[in-house]
Amino acid sequence: MLELTATDINSYIGTFWWPFFRIMGAFALMPLFSNGHVPIQVRLLLAMAIAGLAGPLLPSPPAVDPLSVSALGLAFEQFAVGSLMGLILSLLIHILSMLGQMLSMQMGLAMSVMNDPANGVNHALLGQLLVMYGTLLFLALDGHLVSLAVLIDSFYLWPVGSGVFDLPLMMVVMKFGWTFAMALMMAIPAVMAMLMVNITFGVLNKAAPSLNVYSLGFPMAMLLGLFSILISFSGLPDRYTEICIDALAAMHQLVGGTP
Questions:
Q1: What is the pLDDT of residues 132-151, one digit of tens each?
Q2: How far apart are CA 88 and CA 201, in angstroms?
Q3: Residue 36 clears pLDDT 70, i.e. is over it
Q4: Helices (DSSP H) in the chain: which residue ranges?
Q5: pLDDT band at 1 (very low <50, low <70, confident <90, very high)
Q6: 137 and 240 Cβ atoms separated by less than 8 Å
Q7: Span 195-209, pLDDT tens digits
Q8: Inter-residue contact 109 to 125 (CB < 8 Å)
Q9: Secondary element (H or E) of residue 56
Q10: Domain-wise residue ranges, the chain
Q11: What is the DSSP letter of 62?
Q12: pTM for the whole thing?
């Protein structure tokens, strides 16, 4: 006859409960999983399924009473660890969003904004296109599978109960500067091309003041901007692949993984 003590029950609950919170914290910010078009029920069921499958294979969690105050603090701790890991990956989407915003401003499309009610934000149309392109490229590179593997590996590198403040939080802060740097680096070729166009129309305005530069410059700037983006797209997949690898490596290093 199977007999379960209170200690055994608490151990079984902890085996599933703590991984669920860390995985759910990551899903709250990770690309694709955190999108507003993915229902919260789907995220909850997926996190429960992964925690149920991986929980018995993970290191034994600390013996904590699930109904105690310390268990509540441990749950918030696991949610925070998962959120920090998901935050690093979410910067991949923000890089392309900022890239599209920079290019839209240079092309004169800054007013062309699309409302995204699912996520509660407004995106430039070009930025939304690049975000969709980056998400599909992330899936094509199996980035979602690698990120889930890193998330499961984090339970070995940073076991439950190891704390949050001992993590390299400064690295997460530095990644925000890395986000702006990557977006600017990919935008520089198109921005410089548009700058030369604006300088050319400025010279034309001085050389022929009677010429209506504004009516001629806007469509020309837009056409040349689209041509510059077309050229930039030829090197975008390779560069974005390197950025995805850097983000996944940073996600691994956050929980003590090797570079």
A1: 888 888 888 888 888 889 99
A2: 41
A3: yes
A4: 6-27, 40-54, 69-107, 125-140, 143-157, 169-207, 213-232, 236-254
A5: very low
A6: yes
A7: 887 787 777 777 766
A8: yes
A9: none
A10: 6-254
A11: P
A12: 0.81
